[in-house]
Amino acid sequence: VDHELDYPKSPAEMDWSLHYPQYFALPDTQPEGAQNTKKVEWADVGCGFGGLLMALAPMFPDTLMLGMEIRMSVTKYVTDRIAATRQVQSLLPSESTEKQQGGYQNVSVIRANSMKHMPNFFEKGQLSKIFFLFPDPHFKNRKHKARIITPGLLAEYAYILRPGGILYTVTDVKDLHEWMAYHLNNHPLFIPIPNEELEGDAILEAARTSTEEGKKVERNKGDKWVACFRRADNPE
Ligand code: SAM
């Protein structure tokens, strides 16, 4: 227990059935020998109010995605938002145009300190996408080690991201953009993806525009800085 944060000792001990009931049978209702093979593949770190997840869930109904958020009230808000949306979806007739594929069963949120406990939730190479959207800038120099991208944490992100997986960063703070890009560029397991390569990419578009912070920046006509990286193959 860490300031009342709940986290499993290891990914194998995590019970996902409450988060994705349609994908994970409860252990005691499972036929003997049956195994849940589905895994969370995308993580939105510091997801805030959940705008990215709600945008991506119906676009990729077969992919399990998870928001991680440290603030309790915000996590509760996203939990309720997902539950309400699932409820509405389940009541819609299947022929209705508002009925989204997947019914938002593939999205969930967890209260977690992602600077401490990512490897408790995800095993090596489990994730194929990890998002850092408009993270807190921590401007003062002495607070830089509080940033969500640091050399030490990059080793963890590289561990849980599979080779070929993509790490997305978007921010409206130029100094933070330069800091994140600098550390990612200098890490041997992250290869920069030229922005042109991702042009028109629906996922990056959602990452830039569908979070609450991203919308606020847009309203204020602020700049957005994007840097994406591919997880390199493991060295021989
Ligand atoms: N990504 C969202 C968006 O674009 O709207 C939220 C951006 S907000 C500026 C940063 C969020 O990261 C906050 O909701 C904050 O509580 C969360 N956060 C900060 N440190 C965190 C940590 N160590 N673990 C999980 N979430 C964290």
Task: Chart the SSEs and their pairings.
Blueprint: E1 40-45, H1 51-56, E2 64-69, H2 72-91, E3 107-111, H3 114-121, E4 127-133, H4 151-160, E5 161-171, H5 174-185, E6 190-193, H6 202-209, H7 212-219, E7 225-231
Parallel strand pairs: 1-2, 1-4, 2-3, 4-5
Antiparallel strand pairs: 5-7, 6-7
Bound molecules: S-adenosylmethionine (SAM).
S-adenosylmethionine binds at residues 46-48, 68-71, 74, 113-115, 133-136, 211-214.
Walk me through the structure.
The structure is a single chain. The chain has 236 residues and is of the alpha/beta class. It has a single domain (39-137, 154-231), classed as 3-Layer(aba) Sandwich (Rossmann fold), CATH 3.40.50.150. It is 31% helix and 19% strand. The chain contains 7 helices and 7 strands. It has helices at 51-56, 72-91, 114-121, 151-160, 174-185, 202-209, 212-219; strands at residues 40-45, 64-69, 107-111, 127-133, 161-171, 190-193, 225-231. Strands 3-2-1-4-5-7-6 form a 7-stranded mixed sheet, with helices on both faces. β4 (127-133), α4 (151-160) and β5 form a beta-alpha-beta unit. The chain is globular, with a radius of gyration of 18 Å. It binds S-adenosylmethionine (SAM). S-adenosylmethionine (SAM) binds at residues 46-48, 68-71, 74, 113-115, 133-136, 211-214.
Structure described in brief:
Strand 2 (64-69), helix 2 and strand 3 (107-111) form a beta-alpha-beta unit. The N and C termini lie far apart (38 Å). The chain has helices at residues 51-56, 72-91, 114-121, 151-160, 174-185, 202-209, 212-219; strands at 40-45, 64-69, 107-111, 127-133, 161-171, 190-193, 225-231.
